[in-house]
Amino acid sequence: MASGCCGGNSGETLIFTCAGAAHSGQVANRAGIGLMQAGKGNLFCIAAVGAAIPDKMERARNAGRRVVIDGCEDHCARKIMEKAGLPVEVHVDVTELGIEKKPAEPQLVLHAKRVVEHVAETL
Ligand code: SF4
Q1: Which residues pair with 16 in a beta bridge?
Q2: Domain count of the chain?
Q3: Domain annotation covers residue 11
Q4: What is the sign, positive or negative, of the torsion defined by CA atoms of 114, 33, 119, 44?
Q5: Per-residue model confidence (pLDDT) at position 119
Q6: What is the number of the ligand 1 atom nearest to the C-alpha of 24?
Q7: Which 3 state secondary structure label does DSSP give 117?
Q8: Which of 11, 70, 91, 120 is 20 to 30 A distant from 97 in Cα terms?
Q9: pLDDT score at 19
Q10: How do residues 39-79 score in pLDDT, each as one tens digit?
């Protein structure tokens, strides 16, 4: 759905993920893909927010709802949003769902599904 001109609640839902190198960071990103595939919103580039790319910032500002998924308690994605002055309506730290921050492991898809189900319940 296209966003409205004034950033009201009728705008699109954008999903930002930290996409960190740790397993939990990759789970965060995979969950963002899963939520988009489930029709819960559009996955968006947190790196573009960090780089303040003008057209990306405008779309992020105009979103009706911003969902941020982080891979650990450092909350990098949420902090990038805060530094950019963008509100965060829904924030999830996947380690709070029992997913450990550790090197890559073969549970990526399974753990991402757990995050998708958790976030989908809040949307
Ligand atoms: S929130 Fe954690 S996993 Fe994600 S980029 Fe930051 S340090 Fe890495």
Answers
A1: 44, 68
A2: 1
A3: no
A4: positive
A5: 96
A6: 3
A7: helix
A8: 11
A9: 92
A10: 999 999 999 999 999 999 999 999 999 999 999 999 999 99
User: Is residue 30 a part of any domain in this protein?
Assistant: yes
3-state secondary structure of 93: strand
Does the pLDDT at position 100 exceed 90?
A: yes
Residue-level pLDDT at 4 = 35
The C-alpha atoms of residue 101 and residue 26 are separated, in whole angstroms, by: 10
Cα(29)–Cα(90) distance, integer angstroms: 15
Nearest-CA neighbor of 63 among 38, 37, 45? 45
Q: Rounded to the nearest 5°, which phi and psi values hold at 77?
A: -65, -45
Mutate to test the pocket of ligand 1, among 74, 99, 115 (most ligand atoms within 8 A of CB): 74
* Residue 1 falls inside a structural domain: no
Range of the domain at 93: 19-122
Give me the pLDDT at residue 46, please: 98
Question: What are the pocket residues of ligand 1 if the criterion is a CB atom closer than 6 Å to any ligand atom?
Answer: 18, 20, 22, 24-25, 70-72, 74-76
Per the document, the length of the chain is 123
Identify the pLDDT of residue 10.
64
Write down the pLDDT at residue 104: 81
Residue 76 in any domain: the answer is yes
